[in-house]
Design brief:
The complex is a heterodimer of chains A (about 400) and B (about 450).
Chain A: H1 30-52, H2 54-77, H3 86-98, H4 107-123, H5 134-145, H6 147-150, E1 155-158, E2 171-172, E3 191-194, H7 197-204, H8 218-229, H9 234-239, H10 251-264, H11 270-285, E4 288-290, E5 293-295, H12 308-318, H13 322-329, H14 340-360, H15 366-376, H16 378-384
Parallel strand pairs in A: 2-3
Antiparallel strand pairs in A: 1-3, 4-5
Chain B: H1 2-10, E1 32-34, E2 40-44, E3 54-55, E4 62-63, E5 68-71, E6 80-81, E7 86-96, E8 101-109, H2 132-141, E9 145-146, E10 151-152, E11 167-171, H3 181-204, E12 208-214, H4 218-231, E13 234-238, H5 247-255, E14 270-274, H6 275-287, E15 293-299, E16 307-312, H7 317-323, E17 332-335, E18 342-343, E19 349-350, E20 357-361, H8 379-383, H9 390-398, H10 402-406, H11 418-422, H12 429-445
Parallel strand pairs in B: 1-16, 7-19, 11-12, 11-14, 12-13, 15-20
Antiparallel strand pairs in B: 2-8, 3-5, 4-7, 5-6, 7-8, 9-10, 15-16, 17-18, 17-20
Helix pairs in contact in B: 3-4, 3-6, 9-12
The chains are: A mainly alpha (about 400), B alpha/beta (about 450).
Chain lengths: ~400, ~450
């Protein structure tokens, strides 16, 4: 009895491809996710170009290009897997560019992109391992490196007849400012120099009594007057017609991009929602001292039938870098908790910290610092929220 | 309070799974077709727990359909029978679907014999009434094997010190959604199969007999709904998600009891028998026919049509494939479906009692992308049916930190492949978890 395998004809055994399961995969890939986030951030770039002029749009393009070049150079000398991930480098450049003030020198985005790629992505962990979003590392690196360029006291914004094509060089500080749409520019001027809304809000914390006495109506009325006199109309902050970073100001555009990312499933809805919820709750309970009067629970303040408190909270949500941080910086997949439950905690932390840092901190860019701080807690959150394994 | 909070944070462990895209699902269930009888069969003498069965026929001997070819002599185990009448040509090795080679009996099929042939033990066989040992002997004599892992049906009867069985679950839930062999077998068996399920439940002395199937197959649901009441078989309709086929998940979904890590369904007082395996029991009980055929789904984009064949055991994969007209050029052939299937090396592997599905894939379906770096999207964690963290495990596996990985219970993995399927970085997550599992198993043995 001969024992040999049952093979009839050699030529019949065709070569079949052999690999491990699974043999099919989702069409989603990391680069597709990256490009989708890139596309979702483009409305912010468009809004920035309109509000702050073509030159600021060009700054963002410079940031993207610099990130691509630096990444290619890093890829050439590094053998690390994914060192030269071009879509991701360009996304980092775009996100970094959108956080810059609109009138910085063109060397600033170049330096920022270099920091983001070399330090944020290259040194601090590398592809898929970094603790902080590289774009944020670039941004806070710039803040420490060139503070006078990154943190001016007053910020420019184009006037209402000078959109897109205006120059940010002929600037005017308004004497009386009734809001962006209502205030005409002086002849020959292109842009306003204004204070950022989040700085104005922080100023409300300890605003002194006006010269004519405390006024009537108590603290609620004082807050109402502050909102009317000090802050721009709330429609301006929602549309983005307030000074700030190139892509940070337009709440509408950020929401459009962010909702699209949620729709695609690349951002879990829990995370931005909890950032906003945490921020709203903290802003609503953070006591103020407006017009010399102490105001507890400012979120509940009403005056003459006007919802002063909710309006005040809305200003907090739509001003500064909070929305951009919530939808584009905090949602960097590598730096967020793995599970939705973890992201709830993570998001709440960011929201609370942003308002705390904004109201009582000394560092501008509260939203970004809040994200950086919470990123450190991600491993702890992940360990806390580990799923129970079936049968244990 | 803290304990409760912690439990909420960690979840119940009964989430996960995904709804697969339609191209990975079976569109409908068709009738079972008989595969044209091939000229040669190489019946594998597989080891299902009783040692390798020893051939009791000689070269040149003429055998009838259903005649025993090999029996387990040393320990009790399922016997092997001739799927068709013919002449024993050789005793040689057969290429097993699992990759290696096993002893086999090669038959030259007598095509002139009646295709169904008279059963060797005409009429109803003597069925033991209550003695479990007699039941086990009956199952082995008729070569009954169930499940894709291939367990002898007799092992359900000889429990030893294992806990009592409370639930018998007849599973028509396919291991993969593309596979319809189980449902086709269920629909073909109809009321007889349900009666057989009830009888098996009685023989095992279980409290409840269940039939588990997924929502989408309304046809099957009506059928079992009508007859299930008559035979006191409960119907568990599961949502249309993947995966649900593995025993631990099925026991959890149907009875609500968790199978403890490292244990079997038996430890949770349940037994899971698949519909094709139950068909063997039905044939043996009702007609005295041994298990010589299995229902196998042939599908995939390289197959011209999807079909559920009744395949004689010992048919080579090549013979099964040539029975469906070729569609696109075949690049890869899988034992199983596209998510869990094992790629076959050549066409000489033979169908055995555990084969349920053959998938033919063309180059278009096969993903050939390079793995990137993990982007920590967390999708594998969300979708894992048993609550593992494949992203963390692959990290630990790459660094060789087996001891730390052990604290995350990689042994719980049911190898459904969903983590690798959803991974946007195209990491071989399942493969690395499986490797960890093996490494840990070895460490435990030492």
């Amino acid at each position: 009895m001969s024992i040999r395998p049952m093979r009839f004809r050699i030529e019949d055994s065709e070569a079949w491809d052999v690999d491990s399961a699974p043999h099919v995969r989702t069409p989603t890939s990391a680069s597709r996710i990256t490009w989708t986030v890139f596309a979702a951030a483009l409305p912010c770039l468009a809004a920035g170009t309109v509000i702050f002029g073509l030159r600021s749009g060009l700054l963002v393009v410079v940031a993207i290009g610099a990130a691509a070049v630096v990444s290619a150079a890093l890829g050439a000398i590094s053998r690390r897997r994914g060192a030269m991930d071009m879509p991701q480098a360009m996304l980092i450049g775009l996100l970094l560019g959108l956080t810059l003030p609109p009138n910085v020198d063109w060397t600033v985005p170049v330096a920022g992109s270099a920091i983001a790629i070399l330090v944020g992505k290259g040194i601090l962990g590398g592809q898929g391992n970094y603790l902080w979003p590289p774009a944020l590392i670039g941004r806070v690196g710039l803040q420490l490196l060139v503070p006078e360029a990154m943190l001016p006291r007053v910020w420019p914004i184009l006037g209402r007849d000078e959109l897109v094509f205006g120059r940010l060089s002929s600037l005017f500080s308004p004497g009386l400012y009734f809001g962006w749409r209502e205030t005409p520019l002086p002849v020959g001027g292109d842009a306003w120099l204004l204070q950022r809304v989040d700085r104005l809000l922080a100023g409300l914390r300890e605003s002194a009594a006006p010269a004519g006495g405390a006024g009537e109506g108590g603290a609620g009325a004082a807050l109402w007057r502050a909102i009317r006199d000090v802050l721009p109309p709330w429609g301006d902050t929602v549309l983005g017609l307030t000074p700030g970073g190139i892509g940070e100001t337009s709440a509408v555009c950020i929401l459009v991009g962010g909702l699209y990312l949620m729709h695609r499933g690349y951002v879990r809805w829990q995370l931005p929602l909890c950032v906003l919820a945490g921020a709203a709750a903290t802003a609503a309970v953070w006591p103020l001292s407006v017009g010399g009067e102490r105001l507890w629970w400012p979120g509940l303040a009403m005056y003459g039938g006007e919802p002063v408190g909710p309006l005040y909270v809305l200003f907090h949500l739509t001003s500064g870098e909070l929305l951009f941080a919530a939808f584009f910086m905090a949602t960097e997949m590598v730096c967020t908790p793995l599970r939705a439950r973890g992201q709830i905690l993570f998001g709440l932390g960011i929201g609370v910290l942003t308002i705390v840092l904004r109201m009582s901190g000394v560092i501008p860019g509260a939203g970004y610092w809040a994200v950086l701080v919470m990123n450190v807690s991600v491993p702890v959150i992940d360990r806390m929220m580990r799923r129970r394994v079936l049968g244990t | 309070m803290l304990f409760r909070l912690r439990r909420w944070l960690r979840g119940s462990g009964l989430s996960g799974g995904i709804v697969l895209p339609p191209q990975l699902l079976a569109p409908r269930v068709a009738r079972v077709e008989a595969l044209p009888l091939p000229d040669r069969l190489c019946v594998p003498l597989s080891d299902f727990g009783g040692g390798v069965p020893e051939a009791i026929v000689e070269v040149g001997q003429v055998v009838q359909r259903g005649q025993p070819l090999a029996v387990c002599a040393v320990r009790a185990g399922p016997a092997v029978h001739a799927p068709a009448a013919g002449r024993v040509v050789a005793l040689r090795r057969a290429v097993s679907l699992a990759g290696g080679e096993v002893a086999g009996v090669e038959l030259a099929v007598d095509q002139t014999a009646a295709p169904t042939g008279p059963p060797p033990e005409a009429g109803r066989p003597e069925v033991p009434n209550d003695e479990t040992a007699a039941h086990a002997e009956f199952c082995d004599r008729f070569g009954l094997v169930y499940g894709e892992e291939g367990r002898p049906l007799s092992e359900l009867f000889c429990a030893g010190s294992a806990p009592r069985l409370d639930d018998l679950i007849i599973s028509a839930v396919a291991a993969e959604p593309a596979e319809t062999a189980q449902l086709a077998a269920l629909l073909r068996g109809g009321s007889l199969l349900l009666e057989a399920a009830a009888q098996l439940g009685q023989a095992l002395g279980v409290k409840r007999t269940w039939i588990a199937l997924t929502q989408r197959f309304v046809q099957g649901r009506e059928l079992v709904g009508e007859y299930a009441r008559r035979f006191d078989v409960r119907v568990a309709v599961l949502p249309e998600r993947y995966p649900q086929g593995p025993g631990a998940l099925l026991v959890r979904a149907v009875t609500g009891r968790a199978v403890r890590l490292g244990g079997t369904a038996r430890d949770a007082g349940a037994a899971v028998v698949d519909a094709v395996g139950l068909c063997g029991w039905l044939q043996a009980r009702a007609y005295g026919r041994p298990m010589t055929h299995v229902v196998v789904t042939v599908q995939g984009d390289a197959a011209a049509r999807r079909v559920d064949f009744e395949v004689p055991i010992g048919t080579s994969v090549g013979q099964v494939i040539s029975a469906v007209e070729a569609g696109r050029p075949i690049a890869r052939v899988l034992d199983g479906g596209p998510l869990r299937g094992r790629a076959l090396r050549d066409r000489w592997a033979v169908v055995d009692k555990t084969t349920r599905c053959l998938t033919l894939l063309s180059h278009r379906m096969i993903s050939q992308r390079e793995p990137g770096a993990c982007v920590r999207c967390g999708w594998c964690v969300d979708d894992c049916p048993v609550g593992l963290e494949p992203a963390t495990l692959i990290n630990l596996a790459e660094r060789g930190e087996t001891a730390r990985a052990a604290a995350l219970y990689p042994q719980a993995c049911v190898e459904c492949g969903i983590c690798s399927y959803v991974c946007p970085a195209h990491l071989d997550l399942m493969e690395s978890v499986r490797t960890l599992k093996r490494r840990l198993g070895k460490a435990e043995r030492i």
